[in-house]
Amino acid sequence: MSEAVTWTRDKALALFSLPFNDLIFQAQAVHRRHFDPNRVQVSTLLSIKTGGCPENCAYCPQSAHFDTGVENERLMPLEEVLDAARAAKAAGATRFCMGAAWRGPNDRDLDAVEAMIAGVGEIGLETCATLGLLEAGQAERLRAAGLDFYNHNIDTSEAYYGEIITTRSFADRLDTLAKVREAGIAVCCGGILGMGETRKDRADMLVALATLPEPPESVPINRLVAVAGTPLANAPELDPLEFVRTIAVARIMMPRSMVRLSAGRLEMDDATQALCFLAGANSIFHGERLLTTPNPAVPEDRGLFDRLGIEPMEAAGPAGG
């Protein structure tokens, strides 16, 4: 299928409906045109400010609306963040992502985060931040500090969004993405599967991403980690093959983007992860924790990479995703 396609729900659903082998073959062919199929980009994610978030995202253990046992913690000191970045680089990461449980940062918060961004950059890592909604001028400040990527997921389709979050709108998300893009920062934006959405919602989410003025350089596809105390604690488990299909459709629709196999890997067996890489995923988070939820340990990922003949990707900078 031509990469000049104007994507619609019907076209995305047609991909989802292909026989599994045909879909994977097409996704792998697209992947090989743009990437080395045996290299995967490795990032590390650190929660620099944990808990107490005023948003009510139904999946999130850090929301102040839910009793999940997550303790509120203040913004980490600069040196602790830099120590974590050094450890991440030593373990093979090329990108260091910093997440804060805010609706959005204030000016004092940004002063501290700017110092973290500059320090992580000096260590020799690509920098990424996820800080919530941004106000006018804040993206420019982050860019001036040296930020390479800003993560701001749309989470799901616009139609299903209100079932997951009511404290902000889908349009709020798009507004922040526009601010990030206008400031010259690369965009990291994806969603979460397994929140009770339909295949149409998954298709609509991917269409929303693929038809942005510029598709995101990085597209994290998360599998819900159901946390006790959140409204989605008892969400029905998503069929693993449907997850793999979504990775494949994302690869075809956004051929030049890095597609990240993100949260939920601890619940996947090695065969499912291998299928995701075959379907076009070429980025992961490694390290034992993603913000507040567990993640495979670095030795486990190294072992899986060795068995699959995969090598970590060298840092490429935002232009390479």
What would the keywords be for this entry?
single chain; 321 residues; alpha/beta; ten-stranded parallel β-sheet; two-stranded antiparallel sheet; 11 helices; 12 strands; 40% helix; 16% strand; globular; disordered C terminus
Beta-strand content bin:
15-25%
**Distance N terminus to C terminus?**
22 Å
How many individual β-strands? 12
Q: Overall 3D geometry? A: globular
Low-pLDDT stretches are 317-321
Q: Helicity range of the residues? A: 25-40%
SSE pattern: HHEHEHEHEHHEEHEHEHEEEHE
Number of helices: 11
Question: Which structural class is indicated by helix and strand composition?
Answer: alpha/beta
- Mean pLDDT over all positions: 93
Could you outline the blueprint of secondary structure elements for this entry?
Elements: H1 9-16, H2 20-34, E1 39-49, H3 78-90, E2 95-100, H4 107-123, E3 126-130, H5 138-145, E4 149-151, H6 158-164, H7 170-182, E5 186-188, E6 191-193, H8 199-210, E7 218-223, H9 240-253, E8 258-261, H10 270-278, E9 283-285, E10 289-290, E11 293-294, H11 298-308, E12 311-312
Parallel strand pairs: 1-2, 1-9, 1-12, 2-3, 3-4, 4-5, 6-7, 7-8, 8-9
Antiparallel strand pairs: 10-11
